[in-house]
């Protein structure tokens, strides 16, 4: 069993990006600049945004945080997005999700300039990705592809089962894995909450991408020997034995699944760190496209 170490791989990637940025600066070119909009004080969102700002510092990017109160109106938020769209110094920006309930998430994502949409959520980028045209790939699927490539996990002709059909992970992952690419050329089955006899599908799978948000859902009796497991989930599970009162669990029951796995991502330290690294990569690409 080989651990697909996202922590190490993302650190390697950041070093590579930092080397590219150093070269850009030495050539007198523009420093990549990533902005983030945060609305409200959601704990997890604040943690994610702070991690993104730190990553920018590490690789040598400029970064801007637009911090807005919870009661910010949709109109005000859309004006902030317009400002970033029109600011030539900003190469890419993200609007941290989830947004407060009074704001239409879809309307906000549609307002982002696709050329600065380094999250890869705008319909233009989703459409281009689907047609296998150059686009910004959503950061989490992009990170999974990178992990599979760097660990030389064979995907061509393999049966991939994606559990979950979200627009952020499940659906784009199913499209990318079926395309003609290094980590691709697979036969893909998309399973979800309405799938009957799910175990029948997972037992046939050579690669399982679990992205449904139910802690420890996938268990050892649901997988075959030699499977590759990509665990996208991360949930706080109450645990009185821990100092913090909780532990972090993925969608996969690691103890029962890992002995049967050829490759498996840990939680934490698997897919999570890759997401931020690929956001940096998308920003670097956005900056290079402008020069």
From TrEMBL:
CDD domains: NAD_bind_m-THF_DH_Cyclohyd. Pathway: One-carbon metabolism; tetrahydrofolate interconversion. Residues 4-119 form the Tetrahydrofolate dehydrogenase/cyclohydrolase catalytic domain. GO terms for molecular function: methenyltetrahydrofolate cyclohydrolase activity; methylenetetrahydrofolate dehydrogenase (NADP+) activity. NADP(+) binds at residues 164-166, 234. Catalyzes the oxidation of 5,10-methylenetetrahydrofolate to 5,10-methenyltetrahydrofolate and then the hydrolysis of 5,10-methenyltetrahydrofolate to 10-formyltetrahydrofolate. Homodimer. This is Bifunctional protein FolD. It comes from Lutibacter oceani. The lineage of its organism: Bacteria, Pseudomonadati, Bacteroidota, Flavobacteriia, Flavobacteriales. The gene is folD.
